[in-house]
Amino acid sequence: MSKGSAMRRTAYTVIGVLILCVMLFPVYWMVNASLQPSGNTLTAGFLPLHPTFSGYKRALDEQGGNLVTSMIIAAGTVVLSLAIATPCAYALSQFRSRWVSIGLLAILISQMIPGIVIANALYTAYERIGLLNSIPGLIIANCASGIPFAILILRSFMLSLPPSLVEAARVDGAGLFRAFVAIVLPISKNSLITAGLFSFLFSWSDFLFALTLTTKGGVRPVTLGIYQYLGTQVQNWNAVMATAVLSAVPAIVLLVAAQKYIAAGAIGGAVK
């Protein structure tokens, strides 16, 4: 490697590290503020020289139930989204018809509809059928974002599946459903994990549906809990920031654990 190439590589590395530091600084400040004594975060020190976990204790006492509610909603969204999106994606990858292009266009258009429009429509429907302030109602609402995205991710991968695999299973006596479950699903593991993770993140970070479709305090995801926290806890920012840190932990853990599957699932359909 020449001296000029080494210098360029070092310069790119330094620039990349600086950009990463700028992007991660809000996360650091959130953790730092969560360890500070109660008070305004603007007066907090750059380092938690006298850390306290009182904010985390208060966050778990007051927001622990909301974290559990968010986890149940996110898990339900993942299960329902994949249960609907997986067979749809496989069908769209196998059919050779002009109607497939129309269906894909409709799926793309559904992703462009503003969330507030969907939320208002769902509010009217939920009020009539009794799904307001319910976990199933929020799961169905979050699937409005999870299912279309999952279909696009899964279809992209399933287009690369050799038809001979399913045909061999059919020759051996397997029906369509058994061939789908025994052959297609195991091969599609990476794309399933990728689609499921994004469905989880969509649901976990949802605020609009939670705000619109819950009018009582019985069902309250953590995003809504943080929002309502701000009105009464402006002098206890350590508890607010501790709640934000706790709410970020599941997403971070899942992203770190599934990063290799995400990379494989995202590019799996690009190579045939």
Automatic annotation (TrEMBL):
<keyword id="KW-0813">Transport</keyword>
<dbReference type="InterPro" id="IPR050901">
    <property type="entry name" value="BP-dep_ABC_trans_perm"/>
</dbReference>
<keyword id="KW-0472">Membrane</keyword>
<protein>
    <submittedName>
        <fullName>Carbohydrate ABC transporter membrane protein 2 (CUT1 family)</fullName>
    </submittedName>
</protein>
<feature type="domain" description="ABC transmembrane type-1">
    <location>
        <begin position="67"/>
        <end position="258"/>
    </location>
</feature>
<dbReference type="InterPro" id="IPR000515">
    <property type="entry name" value="MetI-like"/>
</dbReference>
<dbReference type="GO" id="GO:0005886">
    <property type="term" value="C:plasma membrane"/>
</dbReference>
<dbReference type="GO" id="GO:0055085">
    <property type="term" value="P:transmembrane transport"/>
</dbReference>
<feature type="transmembrane region" description="Helical">
    <location>
        <begin position="135"/>
        <end position="154"/>
    </location>
</feature>
<comment type="similarity">
    <text>Belongs to the binding-protein-dependent transport system permease family.</text>
</comment>
<feature type="transmembrane region" description="Helical">
    <location>
        <begin position="12"/>
        <end position="31"/>
    </location>
</feature>
<feature type="transmembrane region" description="Helical">
    <location>
        <begin position="99"/>
        <end position="123"/>
    </location>
</feature>
<keyword id="KW-1133">Transmembrane helix</keyword>
<feature type="transmembrane region" description="Helical">
    <location>
        <begin position="237"/>
        <end position="258"/>
    </location>
</feature>
<dbReference type="InterPro" id="IPR035906">
    <property type="entry name" value="MetI-like_sf"/>
</dbReference>
<keyword id="KW-1003">Cell membrane</keyword>
<feature type="transmembrane region" description="Helical">
    <location>
        <begin position="175"/>
        <end position="202"/>
    </location>
</feature>
<keyword id="KW-0812">Transmembrane</keyword>
<feature type="transmembrane region" description="Helical">
    <location>
        <begin position="67"/>
        <end position="92"/>
    </location>
</feature>
<dbReference type="Pfam" id="PF00528">
    <property type="entry name" value="BPD_transp_1"/>
</dbReference>
